[in-house]
């Protein structure tokens, strides 16, 4: 047999079992990667699949990228050349931010391991995963968890011990997960629109563009997470403060009857009178009137209003009375245009159609 020509591809001489041993992975992992299009197809001679050095190198590359925190979907895009050159360093920065400082030395656990260490039945943890509270990482085609997840389950147990029903906690967690994903998608879209896309249009080298992208991400991530955490804490405490009021919900009729005191933290609910919304020149301050079929209250608010806030719809605001005007700190919105505050459920059908107190 003659020598191979220079530059000719190295022949595929490994069966799948040989490749698994050489790459220190399981055969199932190799087949999983093939289904995810992370590995090029093998060479087939007859009924046998043969693998070569390119498969060994690709497996080593995949494992290295996984250790750096990249998801398999992102790894496939990187290996297939679908990402811009400037996006790869940004992806690395995102993966590094998502990883714990101890990830390299972290012990990887199965969900059964987490259940045993936390002392929680496995079916309950399955429900917690479905609710989006426990998020596994994919390692060699299998879901894996860490001791941080055990600590998270322990925190959940403390809530149960405080008396919270499991079903209600899972429902709340699922709602929070859905809302968080929606907000995060909007935030990423803003980043793409106002940071990433403008940089792509500038006359910069790939290295310069990547450097600016990563710098922007490292500045914005802690800023946004701090804003979100502080806002949630402030709203949570405000809600608790309102709940602690002996009679915290009022209607415009209650305000007109003098039942609410100046400066008292309270909730006010009613319908937004048609043609009552006025927007100030600063772009963030609005005035509107809430009605309940018996009386009307003027409300002023400074901030961004919910998407579903509109004239003729139900609304609940939180704040205080100041000189007869309700100064709102928060406008509550429900994800349903037909929302009527529960406390106003006895309004007449005529008023619900917006025919009362419109003049």
Written description of the protein model:
By secondary structure, the protein is α+β, with helices and mostly antiparallel strands. The protein has three domains: 16-82, Multidrug-efflux Transporter Regulator, Chain: A, Domain 2 (Orthogonal Bundle); 93-242, Multidrug-efflux Transporter Regulator, Chain: A, Domain 2 (Orthogonal Bundle); 249-352, OB fold (Dihydrolipoamide Acetyltransferase, E2P). The protein is 47% helix and 15% strand. The chain has twelve helices and eleven strands. It has helices spanning 16-23, 27-35, 53-67, 72-79, 87-98, 111-118, 122-130, 147-161, 166-201, 206-243, 252-256, 349-352, and strands at 43-45, 48-50, 137-139, 142-144, 249-250, 266-272, 278-279, 285-291, 296-302, 314-322, 325-332. It has a five-stranded mixed beta barrel with strand order 6-8-9-11-10. The protein has a two-stranded antiparallel sheet with strand order 1-2. The protein has a two-stranded antiparallel sheet with strand order 3-4. A hairpin with a 2-residue loop joins strand 1 (43-45) and strand 2. Helix 5 (87-98) packs parallel to helix 10 (206-243) and helix 9 (166-201) packs antiparallel against helix 10 (206-243). The protein starts with 15 loop residues before the first helix and ends in a 7-residue tail after the last helix. Mean pLDDT is 80; it is low at 1-9, 335-339 and 348-359.
């Amino acid at each position: 047999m003659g020598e191979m020509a220079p530059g000719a591809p190295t022949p595929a001489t490994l069966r799948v079992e040989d490749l698994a041993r050489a790459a220190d992975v399981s055969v199932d992992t190799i087949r999983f990667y093939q289904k995810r299009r992370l590995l090029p197809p093998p060479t087939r001679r007859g009924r046998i699949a043969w693998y070569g050095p390119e498969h060994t190198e690709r497996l080593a590359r995949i494992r290295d990228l996984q250790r750096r925190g990249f998801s398999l979907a992102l790894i496939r895009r990187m290996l297939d050349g679908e990402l811009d050159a400037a996006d790869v360093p940004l992806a690395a920065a995102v993966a590094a931010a998502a990883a714990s400082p101890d990830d390299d030395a972290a012990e990887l656990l199965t969900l059964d391991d987490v259940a045993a260490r936390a002392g929680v039945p496995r079916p309950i943890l399955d429900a917690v995963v479905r609710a989006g509270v426990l998020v596994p990482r994919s390692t060699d085609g299998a879901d894996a968890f860490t001791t941080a997840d055990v600590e998270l389950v322990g925190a959940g147990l403390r809530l149960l011990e405080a008396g919270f029903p499991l079903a209600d906690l899972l429902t709340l967690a699922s709602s929070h997960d859905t809302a968080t994903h929606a907000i995060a998608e909007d935030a990423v879209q803003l980043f793409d629109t106002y940071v990433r896309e403008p940089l792509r249009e500038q006359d910069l080298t790939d290295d310069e563009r990547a450097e600016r992208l990563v710098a922007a991400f490292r500045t914005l991530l802690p800023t946004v997470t701090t804003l979100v955490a502080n806002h949630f804490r402030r709203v949570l405490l405000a809600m608790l403060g309102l709940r602690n009021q002996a009679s915290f919900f009022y209607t415009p009729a209650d305000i007109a009857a003098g039942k609410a005191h100046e400066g008292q933290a309270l909730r006010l609910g009613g319908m937004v009178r048609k043609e009552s919304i006025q927007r100030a020149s600063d772009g963030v301050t609005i005035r509107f009137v809430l009605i309940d079929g018996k009386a009307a209250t003027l409300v002023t608010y400074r901030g961004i209003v919910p998407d579903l806030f509109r004239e003729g719809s139900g609304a609940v605001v939180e704040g205080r009375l100041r000189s007869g005007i309700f100064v709102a700190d928060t406008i509550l919105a429900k994800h349903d245009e037909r929302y009527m505050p529960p406390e106003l459920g006895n309004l007449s059908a005529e008023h619900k159609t917006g025919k009362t107190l419109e003049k």
